[in-house]
Amino acid sequence: MTVRALSSVLRKKAEEEVNETPNVADAAIAQLRDWLHQKPHLRAAKIPDQWLIAFLRGSKFNINKAQEKLDTYYTLKTIAPEIAANRHPFDASIQEILKIGFFLPLRKCSTDTSPRTCLVRVAAFNGTKHSLTDLIKVALMIIEILLIEDDNFTICGEEAIVDVKNLGFGIISQWTPTLAKKVVTCAEKSLSVRLKSMHVLNAGKGLKAALQLFKLFLGSKMKTRIHLYHKDYEKMYRTVDKSILPVEYGGTDGHIQDLIDHWKMKVETYSDWYAQHDSIRPDESKSSDAKNSANVLGIVNCFKKLDIDLFRKMKVRELSEALRKKAEEEINENDRNIETNLEVMRKCFNEHFEDHTIRPLDQWFLAFLRGCKHDVEKSKRKLEKYYTLKKSAPDFFANRNPTDEKIQALLKLGLFLPLRQCVKEDSPRTCLVRVSQLCNSQYSLVDLTKIGFMTAEILLLEDDNFTVVGEEIVADMKNVGFSILSQWTPSLVRRMFTCAQNALTVRLKSLHIINAPRGLKAAVSIFKMFLTAKLKRRIYIYNEDYEGMYEYVPKSILPVEYGGTAGNIQDLTDYWKAKIESHGDWYAEFDKACDEFKIPKKTTTNNSAHTIS
After folding, report:
1. Counting Cβ atoms within 10 Å, is residue 537 exposed (0-12), middle (13-18) or buried (19+)?
2. Would you call 102 helix, strand, or coil by DSSP?
3. Domain annotation for the chain: domains and CATH numbers
4. Residue 259 and residue 124: Cα distance in Å, rounded?
5. Are 132 and 180 in contact (CB under 8 A)?
6. Of the four listed, 145, 191, 356, 443, which is most buried by Cβ atoms within 10 Å?
7. Spatial distance between the Cα atoms of 371 and 467, rounded to a whole number of angstroms
């Protein structure tokens, strides 16, 4: 047996924690060798003893569990190749991730018998440029090195420090239930990673949903070991000593760049290992105990009707049963046409950006398809028009840096606030538009519209109720006088509708105007000029009595300031301010994409087709 000798303290820890003694280890490895010889796809593989003992330790020397984990590890290369295969260290995408330093095990442990602390720098990435699956793939590549080289990792486990500073939706939107399940399956059920604790740094309000997805697949004990910190790390230092942390996190042990350089070089030296082990895969047509993807990942019981092959091709959220039915009935969406139509949208995008480095999410393309009821030609026209908006409607779509002083002031007013809850699982998203906040301010309807569109883009990316079922607006006009109503011109309304319906695919279902001022009739008449006959009948006007509105918009989803029970306006304002701030990279990428947008020579397009006036 060729296995590293343990220090005396780790030998004692191994016996206490994972039931390992020298005699037990020898016998267990011999049993695994016999089992490997019976597996057609593993028989000829050159698998070192050090690799086998990592699986035994992760299974606390339960032979059956170790066998199952090994089998799952090699099976995942076939059914989840996006994170478990095609691992070429010198591939451009992997090199880029290694240079930024997403997953960095620290050099020291707190004590000789402490877990290995690993720094996960989610904050280092731009979600519109990087694929979350690639980030996870690189992390798993490094974990394999730890399984081979690090006895503290295999015996004492792992302690994760996750930095989510400025975490944007570009990453969160890719963190689907299916991907979360795959990650936990790879880490716990194949690679035997024993996560001891997780410290989440710079945790913003938008993190809750992503964390809930992760917790779905954790044991009850592990759920209690997740700790959140904002900007003050003092409590973390009680658990994670400063002496092992890099200086960028208040520690004394070197710099982040040193760790990046070390792990980049280390991964590159394992090139042959990855190539060898990626080639070891079961032949499911011959192997009697081969596992299909749904069985290995346990997805069938957790997420009904999920098509794994479809998931591999696209990165879109799985709909609930109620929304899936609604999508089929209202917008002609089904599992068969999603991938076909998405491929058309990708090609359309590439035609306009031949040298473009931005990779929009499939979820973004899907929003356009849903807004056009999967009419591909309409969707393509709207996508093209969207990327002309910076030039054709700069007052709405240019200069959208969330940290800009003016944008910050507008966000603090809480002008456009989607509510947290929908009436039912398959109801539209209700958005509160507080025109009243413009009173006694220096800002205009154009400013409100800009914030509205910035928020709508997040909803198109993040909110399936919004894209599948549509939007319901509650517009508060309290104390709105002539100075604001006079801005409501036919030209402004036409431009708003052109952007909302012809570029951003917003589907307005109903409009409830509350605290209606006397001069509102003319403004509503202008608004109706651009509505369909059906939608004209769905405009409701109320004065200060909201009882009629509650029949359509129940109190259970409204904030207390509007007679509801779902929190207060300030909470919504703070939430959407933080949400928009987290999308700074998205708005910057939009600016870049608009500058690079080109109309292909083969397309005969009238200049007026991309003009909003």
Report:
1. exposed
2. coil
3. 8-278 (3.40.525.10), 413-585 (3.40.525.10)
4. 14
5. no
6. 191
7. 7
Residue 320 carries which DSSP code?
P
Predicted pLDDT at 301:
40
**Is 27 exposed, middle or buried (CB count within 10 Å of its CB: 0-12, 13-18, 19+)?**
middle
**What sign does the CA torsion over 38, 80, 92, 121 have?**
negative
Tell me the C-alpha distance between 142 and 139, whole Å: 5
Instruction: Categorize the per-residue pLDDT at 587 as very low, low, confident or very high, splitting at 50, 70 and 90.
Output: confident
Residues 426 and 325 sit within 8 Å (Cβ to Cβ): yes
The region of weakest confidence among 124-128, 254-258, 508-512 is: 124-128
pLDDT of residue 607: 42
Helix (H) or strand (E) holding 276: helix 271-278
Going across the sheet that includes 116-120, the strands are 103-105, 116-120, 158-163, 195-201, 226-228
Q: Which helix (H) or strand (E) segment is 512 a member of?
A: strand 508-514
DSSP state at residue 436:
G
Rounded-to-integer distance, Cα 613 and Cα 607, Å? 12
Residue reference for tokens 């194949």 = 190
Q: How far is CA 518 from CA 118, 190, 524, 541, in A?
A: 63, 68, 11, 12
Lowest mean pLDDT among 366-370, 377-381, 423-427, 598-602: 598-602
Collapse the DSSP code of 355 into the 3-class scheme (helix H, G, I; strand E, B; otherwise coil) and give the result. Answer: coil
Side-chain-facing half-sphere of 57: CA atoms under 13 Å? 30
Q: How many Å separate Cα 262 from the centre of its chain?
A: 29
Number of H helices, E strands in the chain: 34, 10
For residue 433, the surrounding DSSP H or E stretch is: strand 429-434
Of the candidates 168, 175, 465, 423, the one whose C-alpha atom is nearest the C-alpha of residue 319 is 465
User: Coil, strand, or helix at residue 128?
Assistant: coil
Instruction: Answer for the pair 56, 27: CB distance below 8 angstroms, yes or no.
Output: no
Q: Confirm if 404 and 450 have CB atoms less than 8 A apart.
A: no
3-state SS, residue 418: strand
* Percent share of the chain, pLDDT over 90: 40
Token pair 């960095």: residue: 104
Instruction: Count CB-CB contacts under 10 A for residue 195.
Output: 19
Alpha-carbon distance values, 456 to 174, 573, 576 (Å): 19, 15, 11
* CA distances, 471 to each of 259, 303, 329 (Å): 47, 27, 17
Q: Report, in angstroms and rounded to the nearest whole number, the Rg of the chain calculated over CA atoms.
A: 27
The least confident of 124-138, 288-302, 507-521, 547-561 is 288-302
pLDDT-derived band at 479 (thresholds 50, 70, 90) equals confident
Tokens of residue 590, six digits = 């939009």
- Locate all alpha helices (DSSP H) within 486-583, ordered by sequence: 490-502, 520-528, 533-536, 547-550, 569-581
- Residues 604, 230: Cα–Cα separation, whole Å: 53
Distance from C-alpha of 276 to C-alpha of 282, rounded to nearest angstrom: 14
What is the CB-side half-sphere exposure of residue 558 using CA atoms within 13 A?
A: 20
